[in-house]
Amino acid sequence: MLIIEIERSGAVWMKLKAHYELRLAHLRLKNEGNLTPEQTQRIRGQIEEVKALLSLGTDRPVIEDENANFKD
Q: How many angstroms separate the CA atoms of 42 and 36, rounded?
């Protein structure tokens, strides 16, 4: 799922993006602290999830499936 260009300029996406960018910065700062390996792993997982959410608003190249026109 991607967010199309017109949706990226909408108020809802802009608010969500700002929220998740702030959350990402907070998680990165937290990750620099004195944490146990388990806490570090948890924070890194949260960072990856936030980055995945933010990536919904980026353009990605279209990859065509060479078997898309294949019929059984």
A: 10
| Residue 14 to residue 12: CA distance in whole angstroms | 5
- Give the global pTM: 0.74
Side-chain-facing half-sphere of 12: CA atoms under 13 Å: 3
Other Cβ atoms less than 10 A from the Cβ of 47: the count is 16
pLDDT at 1: 65
Crossing angle (nearest 10°) for helices 37-55 and 11-31: 160
d(Cα 57, Cα 20) in Å, to the nearest integer? 12
Provide the residue ranges of all domains of the chain, joining segments of one domain with +.
1-31
pLDDT tens for 49-63 read 999 999 988 876 666
3-class SS string, 12-36: HHHHHHHHHHHHHHHHHHHHCCCCC
